[in-house]
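Appendix C: a fully annotated inverse folding record. The material below is reproduced so that readers can follow the format used throughout the book. The structure is listed first as tokens, followed by the designed sequence.
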């Protein structure tokens, strides 16, 4: 019986991997073709060039209305860059996913980009492994070092963690959005974190102090990276967005710095001319380290502090709610096991 289960399990894992690989290939080819069409349209003369910056936003609006979130302006920008960085489609490595290629677009040097692409395909790097190698300047250190073997051993040690299975690939929001899977962003979190955020969402709406739900796992993007905000509300009393980020461990200065960046990005990318500055709230779920920090930026703290205290939930309220829901969810999981 155990031998049969093992064989069936391996068959299922292999089938899933083949299915994901097929989707990866089709997605990469489609993104390349979309990028090519956009570039060729932009190069089609003065009449088309007059679209300027409006082109991607107008395309994104139309495509998103028909095909979903995977075709927003940020993704279309990546597709255009993809075609420009890899103009020969036959030179692409089919072993790599769209997430791999988006990561490669952060590499400025054509030579380094090609090297990372071929190495990722040959060594079967996951997209996270590729990002790690680029971040540690693996290629550049190999060129500069007189002991290349030592650099290679160091890089291999960094990738010694178990490789991700098909489930890790399914969690990729880019893949899910491309397939039109509803609620793709929710799969980014663990089951417990998903449930906690769902309960927090209901809790804030139940407070009734002007909260309107905007989005969950909302993506905000720079030219080279995407970031995902756990929960986004708009408070019509304060006339501002309120964003929440859930952390598993104790609050760190890196977490505060990240929230500071999120708030600044949200103010620049989402805030309207009549909106007050965005409020960022970090939630740490460990019982002994639950911390809430309000980040009111752009030197407006004195102006808005009194209104925030009257409308936003207190640290004790949020901590008590998270602790209560976490205990209930853990008890439910224990009963299932």
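Designed amino acids, in order:
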């Amino acid at each position: 019986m155990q031998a049969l289960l093992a064989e069936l399990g391996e068959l299922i894992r292999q089938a899933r991997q083949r299915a994901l690989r097929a989707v990866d290939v089709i997605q990469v080819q489609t993104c390349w073709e979309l990028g090519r069409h956009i570039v060729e349209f932009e190069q089609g003369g003065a009449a088309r060039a007059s679209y300027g910056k409006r082109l991607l936003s107008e395309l994104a609006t139309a495509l998103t209305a028909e095909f979903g979130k995977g075709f927003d302006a940020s993704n279309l920008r990546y597709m255009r860059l993809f075609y420009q960085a890899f103009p020969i489609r036959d030179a692409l490595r089919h072993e790599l996913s769209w997430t791999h290629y988006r990561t490669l677009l952060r590499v400025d040097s054509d030579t380094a980009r090609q090297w990372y692409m071929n190495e990722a395909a040959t060594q079967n790097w996951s997209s996270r492994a590729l990002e790690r190698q680029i971040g540690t300047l693996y290629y550049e250190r190999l060129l500069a070092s007189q002991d290349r073997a030592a650099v290679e051993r160091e890089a291999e040690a960094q990738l010694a963690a178990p490789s991700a299975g098909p489930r890790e690939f399914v969690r990729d929001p880019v893949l899910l959005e491309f397939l039109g899977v509803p609620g793709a962003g929710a799969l980014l979190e663990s089951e417990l974190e998903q449930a906690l955020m769902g309960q927090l969402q209901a809790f804030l709406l139940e407070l009734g102090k002007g909260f309107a739900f905007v989005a969950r796992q909302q993506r905000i993007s720079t030219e080279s990276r995407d970031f995902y905000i756990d929960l986004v509300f708009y408070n019509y009393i304060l006339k501002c967005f309120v964003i929440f980020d859930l952390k598993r461990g104790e609050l760190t200065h890196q977490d505060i710095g990240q929230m500071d960046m999120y708030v600044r990005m949200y103010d620049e990318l989402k805030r309207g001319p009549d909106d007050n500055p965005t409020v960022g709230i970090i939630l740490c779920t460990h019982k002994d380290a639950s911390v809430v920090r309000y980040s009111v930026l752009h030197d407006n703290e004195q102006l808005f502090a009194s209104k925030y205290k009257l409308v936003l939930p207190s640290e004790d309220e949020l901590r008590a709610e998270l602790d209560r829901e976490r205990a209930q969810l853990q008890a439910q999981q224990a009963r299932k096991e």
